[in-house]
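Hey, quick one: can you model this chain's 3D structure?
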Amino acid sequence: MKKGFADTFVTITSLAYLLLGVSCLTTAATAPIWLILLATDLSQTWPALLLAAPLAGPATYAAFACFADHTDGGLKVVSVYLRAWREGVRRAGPLGLAVTALVAVVVVDVIGLAGSPAGALAAPVLAMTGACGLASFFIAVAAAQEFAALRRLALIKASLYCAIRHGGWSLISLAALALWVAFLSRGAIWSLAAVLGPVLYLVWANSRHSLTPVRATIALAPPPPAPKPDLN
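Sure thing. Here's the predicted structure for all 232 residues.
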């Protein structure tokens, strides 16, 4: 019984350390984004926000790497995060650029069409496009870690398919992110470092679950042909 209590205590404390560590490290890795959002007038500084937004790519990759490592029994956070962040610059950086460009186009179109008859028709389509893009981004980051052999174009196609196929999990992830942003917009700065980790953990878990079709496809794929022996 004592052993069971000790195991439970270690599990809870290690999870708390993981979530708090990921919160603080991700906040630090994306500090320019939060400084622009919380301390400036976005009507004047939105170009700087567009330049800083791709930092979310490597930071998300590193956070997901910590969650995956913890699931496999790892207890380290800082070293895993820093190592994964360096790797994420190459693997998730382009994904961050792509989703930033997509969201920027959607926002500009919504603002440009606001108040017009075309805007009323286009707004739902644009909102759905932005939501699919964001959900696909998180799934693609999770897939980039789990399926390192997938090329980037195949990764994006698979992630978009999974985001639509498992739309319920994508909506849960986006709803959690929206609720967290709502806390921030009300001045709850404490939620930046305290709640970011749990929210990202939920998004990671949903994203990994959404990748079930990709796992099934890869499992059923025939193995690559063996190299022919060199007879020379």
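One thing worth noting: The mean pLDDT is 84.
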